[in-house]
Amino acid sequence: MLDHNGVRWINDSKATNVGSTEAALNGLQLDGTLYLLLGGDGKSADFTPLKRYLGGDRIRLYCFGRDGAELAELRPEVAVQTETMEQAMRQIAPLVKAGDMVLLSPACASLDQFKNFEQRGEMFARLAKELG
For residue 53, what are the CA distances in angstroms to 48, 61, 111, 117? Predict the structure, then answer.
């Protein structure tokens, strides 16, 4: 986790399936807006269980990778679709303010764009330091 200027950047790249992302979102407490990074290779998973955690007006979805379009359909009115996680993070960076959280909990495998979830997490951490 990186906390910079009151914005928390949380790396949960290990959340490679829907259940792991549900666990990350369950009971999440924050003061500001949640910028949730979702995407990769969902391996034909059913993403609909995530919907119950994506309500309210203080959430923005940034969906990337092979299944980004499908994930964006969970809440299209607050979703942005990008090709890569880096593109998503570069769009998020100028929007965040103190109290906000940027959470990488992708609900998907990383193999469509990365060697493994560790490499995806390392890129998130590097970009969080650069952009945060």
Answer: 10, 12, 25, 23
